[in-house]
Amino acid sequence: xEIIKAILLGLVEGIxxxxxxxxxxxxxxxxxxxxxxxxxxxxxxxxxxxxxxAILAVVLLYFKRLNPLSTxxxxxEKINTMGIWYKVIIxxxxxxxxxxxxxxxxDRHFYNYIMVAVMLIVYGVLFILIENSNKEKETKINGFxxxxxxxxFLIGIFQILALIPGTSRSGVTILGAILLGTSRSIAAEYSxxxxxxxxxxxxxxxxxxxxxxxxxxxxxVLLTGMTVAFVVSIVAxxxxxxxxxxxxxxxxxxYRIALGILVLGYFFIINR
Length: 272
Fold this sequence. Notes:
The protein has 272 residues and is mostly helical. It is globular. Helix 1 (2-16) runs antiparallel to helix 2 (23-33). It has one domain (2-270). The protein has helices at 2-16, 23-33, 40-49, 51-61, 63-66, 75-110, 113-133, 149-159, 169-179, 184-210, 216-243, 250-270. The protein is built from twelve helices and no strands.
């Protein structure tokens, strides 16, 4: 049963990590019905480290594009690839610094269903409003060569907001990037690339705090969840990139609002 639970949570993580709908919001709901027999410390670590599977999907799908050492690339192509990495590093700095300093504080003060539900609804509304206001505007940034270091850093500042559960890391970085003039595809891809160092760092931090002291079952549960998240993430990323070529993010905004209302309603009923 523990392995089946890990598979279900891996499915949820793989789908919701990349779509701008908040993996945390979904995890909170799912964990109401699927509870591991492990300690709360293990569950706290599992929620973060399972994301490594999702990250490996990005590495696999974009390996050729992100590999500056490829012998098949010209000198200029290698320079362009390193440029992407420099912009990723710059965009990572704000959230990495604040996250390292205030990780426990954010968990203690914001990890609750009310905050998650509110953030789901607030950013759902923002997706709809921003898409409506940008409908007739032409995007200024349609390639990574056009993405300046200043804009990359500003998108990174938006990513700080993702430390509040329910915000959605991909959602807030995509919104920030669109507001700063990027196309939907560049906003989504930059969000994917930013996730690589951010999630590796967050996972390492949680593993160190947990102490690598796993039972055999806990190790099996963690590896199963990561593997499922990896496979499902590949499908989710391909779907999102195909979808946004012809559609806006408004449908995700409406979905977030509906989910936020569902979370509030569910917990209101069970806490009466």
